[in-house]
Amino acid sequence: MDISTQNTQAPPPTTQPPVAEQKRAARGATRPGDRIFLGLSRGSGIFLLVIMAAIAVFLAYRASLAISKDEGNFLTAFEWNTNLNPPVFGIAVLAFGTVVSSIVAMAIAVPIAVAIALFLTHYAPRKLSGPIAYVIDLLAAVPSIVYGLWGALILVPNMNGLFGWLNEYLGWTGIFSWEGGAPRSMLTVGILLAIMILPIITNVSREVFRQVPQMHEEAALALGATRWEVIRMAVLPFGRSGVISASMLGLGRALGETMAVATVLSPTFDIQASLLDPGGGTFAQNIASKFGEATEFGRDALIASGLVLFVITLLVNGAARAIIARRKEYSGANA
Amino acid sequence: MSHAVIADKRPSALRGARLPKWSSWAIAVGSVAIAVAIGLGAGLDSRIQWGLIAAILFILGTYGIAARVEGRRQAKDRIATSLVWVAFLLAVVPLVSLIWATVQRGVKVLDVYFLTHSMGVVADSEPGGGIYHAILGSLEQVGLATVIAAPIGVLTAIYLVEYGRGNLARSVTFFVDVMTGIPSIVAGLFILSLMLMFDMQPFGFAGSLALAILMMPVVVRSTEEMLKLVPNELREASLALGVPKWRTIMKVVLPTSIGGITTGIMLSVARIAGETAPVLLLVFGNPFINANPFEGAQASLPLYIYQQYANSAGSTAAYDRAWAASLTLIAFVMILNLVARGIARWKAPKTGR
């Protein structure tokens, strides 16, 4: 609309219409085609908002059906028995497992992703950085189920050595103690999730590092700084908020990842102190593996746990986007 | 900095001593050799450990040598450089391993028979059978999802770029961003709650709806970027000739950016083609060929991989089929990616800059 209103001086069409009609045409959106087109495109936008609202409303409705019949405490119960009468189920174990696996994934992925982003922007030979960025994109394009299959059949058998090692030297911490079960545990899940969220964190961080003002870097170099000092003094401070939001986008992915966790983890419904012993579960994994034999009530209960996951990812993603949006405003140089 | 070193080969009194260019390679080769020796000597059977030992040796070695020859600040710089390189290699290892494993194990059973037969009369633990039903289901579900999501996504992007001002556009932008982060299983649960409401059994189109929800925000994002690349002068020229705004968009803006829009749509198709979770909830899987997406359970390629892995109690035949199906899926996704990038390069908007 704005563009056509600016064009009030546009020459009138060849056949002179009456003055009133001419005025209306100048305001725009009076031609039927224009009105239909605006309606369609605005309608699509509104439709997207409606979908978001509908997701929240329908999930909340089905969840309320299940939670109202829950005999245990939905937030703290350590059980998932939806077939009992009365049913008892709670999300405590799932929340714990989801948080732990995501923290492990973040702890591994963020430093590596930031290093790769730095590699692409500041270290790699110019000729290499294009193909490498492409390889990182390929990493993102591999479907999660293939990661899951790879994780379960290739990564898991290869974790035995590492687990034994961790148990031997760090077992006293309790976090890294291992009773020798198959390494289908939270640590393996975290490593697999880290591989999967690496590309998104790398890509967003890379964009931010690209925007660092050239002047800052050149100033640091002119003062005799080494490349690392340039990065520490000019690049990282500038990119900090970008890296934080990139990490939160990655966190959002890790929280909701289903298939890779479902194939790798051997789930139990309790909380393990050790990262190496198999057991535990995540929201998404629990839904995928319990869904098959769930009754209609059981499905409602799973929907209730899905609603919690939805709210958590909404908050994480919303916060990440808000940080990115704020950054866009104050660094006007990168339009 | 390195340019100066290359240009001027004479030793200079102003510069401190520097390690020769091949030194980092030498340290890398040395540390790998020592790591292999330690690995063999101590009988460590995990290659991951070998790699970790090599990486640690490389970093320590670089620091030690550089600190001695060049000084501490330079040594720190070299450590950062080697850490960054190690991080990059660490990221490449899983990708190479994944592609290697998929190709090596996938080609075992991947042949014309595998692509043209279903699992109808084959038990999950027996050899034989194929993925025809899964390919068919995947193509139908993804095709229907694209038919729904692509127009809505493109129109929303047009609204945001060409019309959108004010609160509605701002909130659409924000929620499109948030929507890209919806876990796929939540989209599946949403459609599932609708199906529970109307007491419906699993069918292919339900999966398409969930996939469409996942696809829309991606299409909006990429189309928006492409429309923003269209130079404003083109729009102004068309409007100045008295062309209505909607015809300007249809005849000038869209044709200019059609390459990029197609690329975006194809990349989002590649993304949803690998989604398993919503299909697991809504389409359920079916070993028989079901060509009708509107009635009865269907199969799909990612779901087939999961079920071959999960329901076969460790049978080698099923694992082989899972790898072969993975190879097919990766090949499909990669071809889409390559073609999409090809189109993007071929039809890149001429920005005139």
UniProtKB/TrEMBL annotation, chain A:
Name this protein carries in UniProt: Phosphate transport system permease protein
Domain ABC transmembrane type-1 positions: 95-320
TM regions (residue ranges): 45-67, 87-120, 132-156, 186-209, 301-320
Key words of the record: Cell membrane, Membrane, Phosphate transport, Transmembrane, Transmembrane helix, Transport
Record organism: Streptomyces himalayensis subsp. himalayensis
Pfam families: BPD_transp_1
Gene (UniProt): pstC
Entry similarity comment: Belongs to the binding-protein-dependent transport system permease family. CysTW subfamily.
GO cellular component, one term: plasma membrane
Keyword Cytoplasm attached: no
Location relative to the cell: Cell membrane
Membrane topology: Multi-pass membrane protein
Organismal lineage: Bacteria, Bacillati, Actinomycetota, Actinomycetes, Kitasatosporales
TrEMBL record, chain B:
Annotated Gene Ontology cellular component terms: plasma membrane
Gene3D superfamilies: MetI-like
Ranges in coiled-coil conformation: none
Alphabetized InterPro entries for the sequence: MetI-like (IPR000515), MetI-like_sf (IPR035906), Phosphate_PstA (IPR005672), Phosphate_transprt_permease (IPR051408)
Ranges annotated as spanning the membrane: 22-42, 48-67, 79-103, 142-161, 173-197, 203-220, 252-273, 322-344
CDD domains reported in the protein's UniProt record: TM_PBP2
Swiss-Prot/TrEMBL keywords: Cell membrane, Membrane, Phosphate transport, Transmembrane, Transmembrane helix, Transport
Function according to Swiss-Prot or TrEMBL: Part of the binding-protein-dependent transport system for phosphate; probably responsible for the translocation of the substrate across the membrane.
Protein name as catalogued: Phosphate transport system permease protein PstA
Source organism per UniProt: Streptomyces himalayensis subsp. himalayensis
